[in-house]
Design a protein that fits this description.
Blueprint (H helix, E strand, L loop, with lengths): L4 H34 L3 H24 L9 H25 L9 H25 L9
Amino acid sequence: MPRPLSNKHSEEAIRFFLVSLVGLGIDIGVAWALIALVGASDPVAAVVGLSVATVINYFGHQFWTFQKGERRASLRRFLAFAGVVVLTLFVRLLVLDFLGPLLPGSGLNAPLRLGLAATVSFFVSFLMSKFMIFRHKVESRV
């Protein structure tokens, strides 16, 4: 018996969240380390952290999150996913720019700033990944 449509989307959203959570830990960990250890600026740290997490997230989403559709990795899909990440990064940088004056410094405010910005950009990333990158083709019955 097929599951209701809403359950399928919920399961994908949960898997997307879990993969993204791992990526977010790597993303923020790398960014925070760059800010705290080498004095990198927020934008530089965010770009490097997100870049490392992008590769990890792509493979997690390709092979686990979106279980319908193409099951093998492709350079074309990775580049499309990287395009989504660029938009996600743009959203994140806008949020960081807004939060910078509210939560200044490199101590505990840095991961808080980065986490809030990543949370906002998560929704952009999920919707674009689901409906543009990892969508499955529905075959019509004639």
